[in-house]
Amino acid sequence: MPDAASSFQRIPPDELAWLGTGPIPARAYHDPAYFELERQAVFLKSWIHVAHVCELPEPGCFVRRDLEFARASLLIARGRDGVLRAFHNVCTHRGTQLVEEASGRQSKFTCPYHMWTYGADGALLSAPDFEAFHLDKPACALPRVALQECGGMLFVNFDPAAPPLRAWLGAYAERLEQMPAARATTFSQYSYEIDANWKLTYDNFQENYHLRFIHPRSGGAGIGGDNPFGYPASLGFDGPHRTQRIWSNPAPDLKPFQRAAAMRGLPAVAEQGLLDLPFGRDYLAFFPNLFVIGTPTQPFSHTVYPISADRSRGVVRLYWVGEDGNASTRFAREYALAQLRDIHCEDIAMIERGQKGLASGALDHIHFQSMEALCRHLFNEVDSRVQAHARLRGERP
Question: pLDDT tens digits for 329-350?
């Protein structure tokens, strides 16, 4: 009788040949000039995940988000009318940032410099001796940034010609709406900064080729039988976005503590109906820098924000429905976050070592094998936009 874990069927390489098989230019992962084109062609023209609706449950709630790639600080607020809006966090008098707090609740935003005061809808409410400016108040409203929601996730776009968010997300919009994050009322979070290019950082979470080498202890449950690398059960692509279905190991090597922690969280997620959602084994990678996983006991998102050609910031969130109902639920949620950080800590040093190697200029190219197809797809989508933008501007890509 074959081993229970031997049912894995590798995806035939010819099914992925359309992505290409050639080497990838290494400069795309460290060159400042390439990064600048990338910043303009990708990040300033894409829908970027910045928050979740559960952070802004009532009128007056706000969050501040600083996005280095846009050289911008954003103020996202729910107005008295219940509408969510995003503004540049700048007073229209002389540009002073209005808010330093990361989040809060207030009905008005007042500039500390000259006391210009704005409503949560961005309108200028008052300004000392305003008549001396010879202006109309409506012309002095806070500058808006496009903000839209799907599956509880809030996205912004700096491009005035941006398509609607659902059109951008394509067929995966409906899947996102069926993820646990769409029902979340709270979340756990950690963030990190890393000395590595955003693509190099993001790619680490798009391939399983490294699992058996970097995570033999923490990630051992995802490796086994005829799938020693923990390759995904399936891959999918839709426009610039991609997905993989996490292979379900029929004989996972769970340590006693891991098993006990997982079991403590099951009653709550079962009661909330999260075990029955259709994409519980799916990983959705939204272009350019967000991925969302629907695992009911560990539903999380990971967004990688570029800071420079060789530095990035990541934000990891686990989404929960309701507050901790009892000690077991609290324990399971805390363990889920700790386990993610444990696994992630094993990655960070290796990613930074990769960045140092690429930045040395020793390599002209890097290589992706067929089961690193998601990494290749991301590069293809980024590079096509960079090349087109460079041609338009008459610059070297």
Answer: 999 999 999 989 999 999 999 9
Its CATH class, for the domain covering 1-45+170-397, is: alpha beta
| pLDDT tens column, 26-43 | 999 999 999 999 999 999
First-to-last C-alpha distance (Å) of the chain: 56
Percentage of residues of the chain with pLDDT beyond 70: 98
Q: pLDDT tens for residues 362-387?
A: 999 999 999 999 999 999 999 999 99
Beta bridge partners of 69: none
The answer to whether residues 376 and 19 touch, using CB atoms and an 8 Å cutoff, is yes
Where do the H-state alpha helices sit in 184-243? 198-203, 211-214
Query: Which DSSP helix (H) or strand (E) runs through 349?
Result: helix 327-359
pTM of the model: 0.94
- Coil, strand or helix: which one is 10? coil
* Token representation of residue 66: 């600083």
Helices marked H in 253-326 — which ranges?
Answer: 256-271
**Strands 144-150 and 311-320, sheet pairing:** unpaired
Q: Determine the length of the chain.
A: 397
CATH of domain 48-161: 2.102.10.10
207: part of which helix (H) or strand (E)?
none
Instruction: Give 32's DSSP letter.
Output: H
Contacts of 278 (CB under 8 A, 6+ apart): 178
Confirm if 150 and 176 have CB atoms less than 8 A apart.
yes
Distance CA 326, CA 267 (A): 11
Measuring CA to CA, how many Å separate 350 from each of 194, 201, 204, 304, 324? 11, 10, 9, 17, 35
The residue ranges of every structural domain in the chain are 1-45+170-397, 48-161
Question: Of 107, 129, 106, 109, whose CA–CA distance to 117 is shortest?
Answer: 109
Helix (H, G, I), strand (E, B) or coil at 173: helix
- Please state, in angstroms and rounded to a whole number, the distance separating the CA atoms of residues 44 and 146: 12
- What span, in angstroms and rounded, lies between the C-alpha atoms of 85 and 75? 8
Q: Which amino acid is at 368?
A: F
What residues form DSSP beta bridges with 319?
A: 187
Strand partners for 146:
157
Q: Is-contact 389 382, C-beta < 8 A? A: no
For 162-169, the CB contacts below 8 A with 24+ separation are 162/45, 162/47, 165/47, 168/46, 168/47, 169/47, 169/241, 169/286
- Kindly state the DSSP code that residue 11 receives in the 8-state scheme: P
